[in-house]
Design brief:
heterodimer, A: alpha/beta, Rossmann fold, globular, B: mainly alpha, 75% helix
Chain lengths: 144, 521
Amino acid sequence: MSSTIVVAYDGSGSSERAMAFAVERAKAIGGSILIAHVLEWSPYSFLTAEELEERHIRRKEEMARAKQALVDPELAKIAAGGVPVSADIRYGHVAETLIKIAEEAGAIQVVIGRQGQGSFAARFFGSTAGTLVQTCPVPLTIVP
Amino acid sequence: MTFMQGIAMKDTLRKLPLPAALAAASATPALSQSLDETINNAFAASTGWFVNLIFAPIPGTAFPWIVAWLVVGAAVFSIYFGFVQFRVLGHSIGLVKGDYADPNDAGEVSHFQALATALSGTVGLGNIAGVAVAVGIGGPGATFWMILAGLLGMATKFTECTLAVKYRNEYEDGRVSGGPMYYMVKGFKVLGKPGGKPLAILFAVFTILGSLGGGNMFQANQAHAQLVNVFGDFPGVITGVVFAAIVFAVIVGGIKSIAQVTEKVVPFMGVLYVGTAIVILLLNIDMIGWAFGQIFAGAFTGLGVAGGMVGALIQGFKRAAFSNEAGVGSAAIAHSAVRTKEPITEGFVALLEPFIDTVVICTMTALVIVITGQLMVDPATGLYIVGESGAIQTVDGNTGVALTSAAFSQSIPFFRYILVVAVILFAFSTMISWSYYGLKAWTFLFGEGKTTELVFKVMFCFFVIVGAAASLGPVIDFSDAALFAMAVCNIIALYILMPIVKQEMNSYLGRLKSGEIRKFA
């Protein structure tokens, strides 16, 4: 618990690399991995009446899909490698939610991959990595 | 907003024929015009009594009893709940901001989302065109009564939306269905009162008719009228088919992206509209004191408008009641999907709806019309000059949406084009919302299932074309009447069920005060 590394994991190539890096770290320090998967969600988005009705069921489906397709296989893989591992799937603003997960778990470090598009949009709206660099309360590693 | 447009339209059709209305009629091919006539006549003959009944004036006055029914209801709920709309306003805003939302419920429907969706079904043409009709006939004083009725209507909305959440159906698979028909059935049963089911069936029937009329045909008709107004005459069938195709793609084809785009653009248009109004008011800041003077003076003297003070009052009350739909029961259907353990919280949030719709947006329209000097005043007496039609004479002879358009364009010339986009989007989002309300009533009556739902959806799309292509006066009269009939059923139920809401309210406010209910950090 005292040496938990939170890894933002969404199944993308860069998040796989972040995971591989974090698993190495955890092995080296005898720590554990906390897989954090955040589903982007804003309570201020606009939905149609029909979407409102189906929101609860969609949420359940999305959670189940994230768990089965992404998180569970990764859990099994890391556990098989002998590293203690747990997972947390949540909805919310990605950077803010990752920080919340790290704080609640008392993590020593957060590891993320980066999208690396350096895009025009990121300049205006900010990127998850950029936000975390500025706001993460524990050491942050960004794996390219 | 929908029925108000109905009234607005009828007023204009009878008194001051809009070019748009004529265009809609003349654009229809001769063959279908005679078909229209046949339909009109048959329809008028069989439903006229119903329309007359709903819109009948209170004996000895010109005041439609249905408007009194809505306003008296709003006043009763305001008093019964100790003017809850003013006591909890700060808490309501906290709820919308998500201060009290459980983080574990992230990803579920938030208070903000339920409110935004309900608002997009309510804010619309009525706020733009209807207010112009009210101020055009009732003078600036109508604004005062409109605001008063809007403030009272907040209590009605509070009552119906709390009940809608409390007595919604939650299915095994996690879907929710709520609305007046559900609280009528379940709530009456809880209190051991008879008549819940028949009232619910009656309400559902009126909801279907209202959704096809005011929530559909009327929207298509007005959107086409506005297009003709700006771009010149063309057949309504074209507008109808295009609109119907888009509506079909959304509600039958399940192409959510269109609806999602609309849902995002509509709030933006609303903000743009209010923002523009504020800019115009700031440009004329030296006139604001005068404008409010006119509103207060007009409210109690009429300043020469037809019917004097009572004339101003009727117009203002009508506009508010027709614009924010408080008491009709429609918004209760949209609000019922929110994720909360406390039904009363959705009531607290829903009461913001008449405030935003009527007290803010409608008032902005009224202020801009007054402040830009669209209404002609007799310099000798300071009274408004009333034309033969009973409406106040305007600078360019504009009425309805054209009056709003002229008022805004005076300061910002290109605004009329923005207004066209706003009108079409508002009409479209209202149609989508009402297709859902209608569908909920339909499935309440006929059961859920792919085929039954498809029947309603296809029928809904068909009526979009009918609404845009023809000027079906009696049909629209009837659907307006059906919307108000919804309010008759709904407010009866609200009177019977209001002790339940009071219990919930007292319990919740007690726990809020004791600190048992707290903000999540």
